[in-house]
Amino acid sequence: MTSVARVAVDVPLPHLDRVFDYEIPQAMAAAARPGHRVRVRFSGRLVDGFIVDVADSSGHRLQPLQRVVTDYPVLTPEVLRLCRAVADRYAGSLADVLRAAIPPRHARAEKSAATAPSTEGLPEPVVAAAWTSYVGGPALLGRLASGAGEVHAVLTCAPGGGVDPAGDWPALLANIAVVAAPHRGVVIVVPDARDLRRVDAALTSALGSGRHALLTADLGPQRRYSQFLSVLSGRVRIVLGTRAAVFAPIVDPGVFVIWDDGDESLSEPHAPGWHAREVLALRAHLCGGALVAAGFTRTAETQLWLETRWAAPVTPRRDVLRRIAPRVVADDSSQDAGPARLPHRAWEAAKAALGSGPVLVQVARRGYVPALACQDCRAAARCAACGGPLALGSGGGSAPVCRWCGTTEVGRRGGAAGPQATALSWSCPSCGSGRLRAVTVGSQRTAEELGRAFPGVPVVASGGDHVVDEVGQEPALVVATPGAEPEAEGGYAAVLILDAHAHLRRTSLRAGEETARRWFAAAALARPGATAIVTADAASPAVQALVRWDPGWLAQRELAERTELGLPPAVRSAMVTGSPTAVDDAARELRSVARVVGPLPAGGRSAGRLGRSDADQLRILVTAPRSSGEALAGTLHAIAATRSARKDPEPLLIAVDPLDWGGE
Questions:
Q1: Angle at which helices 94-101 and 77-89 cross, to 10°
Q2: pLDDT tens digit string along 330-351?
């Protein structure tokens, strides 16, 4: 009797988002089982696919499978169910999600996996003493140690520069894994390679070598696939990785941990644009598992979890914070800036701290002069070709260059060492002036100025293509962009946060949240009791939260404002971008299930993804009650499927719950 394989083919067209039946040849009967990767003929060409089920018969005339590619069922039923749920939530296709969930096959890795030895048993779980510094910490670890399911928590980590155990966040995450792994499989997701190295070292210290797996694209194809197979086979019960590790095929999954969920690296840039935080929350719900979202601050999404009582807070005790948190001072006297554009108080703090250790200087952007404006009317200087922001390169001797498309504003005259420059080919569209001024000063120029202001003191720059992981205890000035701050042995003697105005004046939905995340992350690297100075008005809510070291208060305020205005995450949202005709057609169908705002200009970056000029592209912003999120996603998928089926030449970009809804 002929068996039938039901195959999810790797074809991302929305109208083909379903399984297709193929005949299993007798020679492949033993190998063609659910979960195996196969090659099939589809629409006249060979494509990859995964067998999701095997049936006895089909009502269609079938083509045979061409080949069974893998020796292992790389797509487990649990991961398949998760991928289908993610595709449905984000109005995408299963093929797109599977491509992110399962790494490409590597034959050599597959052969070596068959003879790989099993890992030894895990050490006896011990709850770290540092959890007593947290309100709710012992209760959380106690429930995880007992194997309890559906434990959801938002962990706000203490600062301390890694010196105090309460502020050693990699060790805390490792301890969660050690305590939970004897009962359920553990998945830990971090934003980038730097965080991965820190947690990897903490897990190795707690468990020993070879008792956890790493899943990240930086490993290379062979090692990544080997690690994937070790997880699939159950030889390891703890997985650590970056964004795509949310789909790790861990045996008996049950505990999921995510660090710094506000980091944009955790948002998938390709269709359907899922976010690691939401995927882990969905996976915890589907398998009845535990979820811990940890960070120095909270996002509006995790605050919503707390206010709906889906999760419980775990926060540092106030007496612990008084002992280890930095002394934060707000100083907005930028008009009185002394050498190296440092306000007097920041200058004095740096001078005093350099006698005992390194000083961290956080600047908003990398480069030399990364933002320019009209000298006369202060309007932002934009590229005539694409509308992107203009910047000056190293040394200021070059012509202004567009940061988006790289076009050079040729014909520049006048000196550029100071704050003003003139570009013959640029003129302000508002006032007609051709004079430019610096809006912000980048990390490169800041490092130059600090080197001249503190002669004899080493200056370390970290950012862009050159990121430094660690610095020692010796006095040094460390100039870093947000997210590239090195850890200092023993913590920083002082932290200076410059360019606060550049953070606070951003016009995006997450501007306040992202500002707080960057400032708290930098200040948390200070040694206990050290001085941290932020060059901003003390009346700013982000500054007030930093001074009191109370990110929870700021998250409550942010969520309350968004709820009042009907903004995400209080509602489900989407952004649809395309030609006027395509956007208008989509808007008509969406108005029956959601509120539609627009059409609006698409903006340079959004339009660029469609390969069209800015003038030709529009977008609509869509919101719906959270209870109607499924209906919204279903309608968006139906719109995409209809356009795909009729081979509509007008492209349409759909993003459900995008990272910065309404932004460019």
A1: 130
A2: 887 654 555 556 778 888 888 9
